[in-house]
Amino acid sequence: MVDKTWPRIIQGGMGVAISNWRLAHAVAAAGGLGVVSGTGIDTVLIRRLQDGDDGGPVRQALAASPWPELAHDITARYFREGGRGPSEPYVRLPAWTAGPRSRRAALAMMGGFVECWLAKRGHARPIGVNLLTKAPLPNLAVLYGAMSAGVDVVLMGAGIPRDIPKALDRMAGHHAASLRGDIVGGGHFDIVFDPAWTGVAQAAPLRRPPFFPVIGAHSLALLMERKTPGGVEGFIVETARSGGHSAPPRGARHVNRDGEPIYGPRDEVDWQVMRDLGKPFYIAGGYGTQDGLAEAVARGAQGVQVGTLFAYCEESGMDSPLREQVLAAVRRGPVTVRTDPDASPTGFPFKVVRLEGTLSEPATYAARPRRCDLGYLREAYTDSAGSLRFRCAAEPVRAYVAKGGRAEDTVRRQCLCNGLMATAGFAQRLPSGGTEPPILTSGDAILETRNLMRGGRPAYTARDVVRYLTAGRAAPVFAQASQPGAHP
Ligand SMILES: Cc1cc2nc3c(=O)[nH]c(=O)nc-3n(C[C@H](O)[C@H](O)[C@H](O)COP(=O)(O)O)c2cc1C
Questions:
Q1: How many CB atoms are located within 10 Å of the residue 480 CB?
Q2: What is the CB < 6 Å shell around ligand 1?
């Protein structure tokens, strides 16, 4: 049984694999809502297996899945006892396409299952899954896998996830579901996931998890309410101080001296509108302090969603040497987080931490030959014959232009797929002998981590974060629900 109240604190979904099952599990144990990231989870799943699956958690989760043949096939294909050889690259997967019966869809479904099953193992606290609307191809498969593991909440941002409530309804009954993918220049294509393709008929219907879109403006909350009546159980209102992708400013584009987008009065949230919707909402982005939580509650929010503080705690999925490098830099002095309007191939602003050895350094960026072999952020376009194709503004410029893209859209674009995999400790080995360099994203409030390291402590845990935010009191972590009957 799941706790029948909404938590005060949500640990934000942080892709790729920063919010992994260990972090979500630790946050749940501390009394918050632990959230796993489902972004890139098919690649994460097979890379963990190729790295030897230390202690066997992934294989235990696979063995518990409703799809034993698939689990066996995945283990046989990807598991390496003791990990890969010293110069062995990770196996590459075929690129995602809109075709539903692909091996990728099966891996994405299993990835969603494994992550949520492990995060939920051994306790009855709720666990959420977070996905990016802007990377739509795997999303239905990941959600069906997560639902098969009993996920309690679905949270999705970076876009307008209008089709998701209906898809959740359908997949709860094991029916085929579809999403509309956007085609550059206009038009749509269907992304379909049919549980029947797994070849396993699960008898009992799945629980339909509550859905919380992550939005940057109250107008989007109104839109979601209007267009998906009854489909949305609450909201995460994310300010532009959040890590990862943010919504671009409304209106004409203005930048400051550092080239960062400037947000103005039109981007301010009308909290009265949020309150009037009568649904629980959380505020995210620079609210990871005791004052932040108090301020959010005073605005009528149920609580806060916090990312940055959790991204650097011991249970985070961030590669440990990188995490320690950041915390050492934070202890030494200021660390710059830049809102980069160009880094993400999606065109959304993306926050980048300036850190030695990462793609934030112009020399490291320039030394990396462009390649696109993961492809989560590719955009759909139609070629001259009218066929549906995909391209990424961070792929080799010539290839992008040959696919009808504009050369100017490739400038300063980062390969977030490979960079973020590297940040989570899954860097691909390169033919040249090196590995893909990492890229680090963070909220503006990165220096708040100092509050967790007082007294010379070099590190802190997820429990420390929850305690810090709730001023050491155990009780108020779970708030009284404002919407009876609509709980996770
Ligand atoms: C490292 C990192 C990665 C993130 N990745 C995602 C993501 O994949 N999807 C998402 O909806 N939000 C993402 N976020 C935003 C967080 O979920 C959260 O809403 C935000 O960071 C809250 O603000 P704070 O960092 O000031 O606490 C990310 C944040 C960080 C720090």
A1: 9
A2: 12-15, 18, 37, 39, 130, 132, 157, 214, 238, 241-244, 284-286, 288, 305-308, 311, 441-443, 445
- With CA atoms as reference, report the closest residue to 245 among 337, 350, 131: 350
State the distance from the centre of ligand 1 to the C-alpha of 243, rounded, in angstroms: 4
pTM of the model: 0.95
Mean pLDDT by 10 residues, the chain (488 residues): 66 97 97 96 98 98 97 97 93 80 88 98 96 93 98 89 92 94 93 89 90 92 84 93 90 89 90 94 94 93 96 98 96 94 94 96 96 94 94 97 96 97 97 93 94 93 95 46 35
Q: Are strands 379-382 and 153-157 parallel, antiparallel or unpaired?
A: unpaired
Q: How far is the CA of 152 from the centre of ligand 1 (A)?
A: 19
Q: Match 């993400």 to its residue by tokens.
A: 344
Shortest-distance atom of ligand 1 to CA 441? 1
Interatomic CA distance for residues 4 and 1, integer angstroms: 9
- CATH code reported for the domain at 9-328+444-477: 3.20.20
**Distance (Å) of CA 3 to CA 6, 233, 484:** 8, 16, 13
Q: Closest Cα to residue 463, out of 472, 475, 453?
A: 472
Relative to the CA of 286, which ligand 1 atom is closest? 26
Nearest CA to 308 out of 10, 12, 9 is that of: 12
